[in-house]
Amino acid sequence: MKAEKVKEIAAKLLKVGKNKIWIDPEEAESVKEAITKDDVRELIKNGIIKKRKENEQSRGRARKIEKQKKKGRRKGHGSRRGTAKARTDRKADWINKVRAQRALLKELREKHPDKVKKLGYSKLYRMIKGGFFRSKAQLERFVMGAE
Q1: Is 135 domain-assigned?
Q2: Concatenated DSSP letters for 93-137?
């Protein structure tokens, strides 16, 4: 059988296009002797006919960009898509802020129990939850009596 026809049969068996089939040029005679589909299967099993590797997308450039992003590059105005609010997870920000303020409140209760008691720990706790304080510094100023 002609090599082209063998290629066609092999392509169907391996479920790829004809161009993805490789035939060992040194074994051209045994390929020509193949008559049936089973003969072609045998050639595939013996490694005389192989499926060529798929062209994969290179990740080299992607890795390079990832490396740059880790360093904090590619964050300028031209790279931004979306508003500042869309680009930050505001819930995560809120959680971090509240956790920091609550930790500070506990610390203040231990260091200055009289000042915290005067204002009420649970009241301050609820104020933190309600977003009354913008930062730890503001909370501290409030408790220490500057505000």
Answers
A1: yes
A2: HHHHHHHHHHHHHHHHHHH-HHHHHHH-HHHHHHHHHTT--SSHH
Q: Are 49 and 43 in contact, with CB atoms under 8 Å apart?
A: yes
Could you read off the pLDDT of 54-105 as tens digits, one per residue? 888 999 999 999 999 999 999 999 999 999 999 999 999 999 999 999 999 9
CATH number assigned to the domain comprising residue 105: 1.10.1200.60
| Whether the Cβ atoms of residue 43 and residue 13 lie closer than 8 Å to each other | no
Pairwise CA distance, residues 51 & 19, whole Å? 9
Distance in angstroms (rounded) separating the CA atoms of residues 44 and 36: 13
* Residue-wise burial string across 6-23, b where 16 or more C-beta atoms lie within 10 A, e elsewhere: bbebbbebbeeeeebbeb
pLDDT in tens, 13-59: 999 999 999 999 999 999 999 999 999 999 999 999 999 998 889 99
User: What pTM does this model have?
Assistant: 0.55
Is residue 29 within 8 A of residue 4, CB to CB? The reply is: no
Q: Is residue 126 part of a domain?
A: yes
Asked whether residue 99 is assigned to any structural domain, the reply reads yes
Same domain membership, residue 91 and residue 46: no
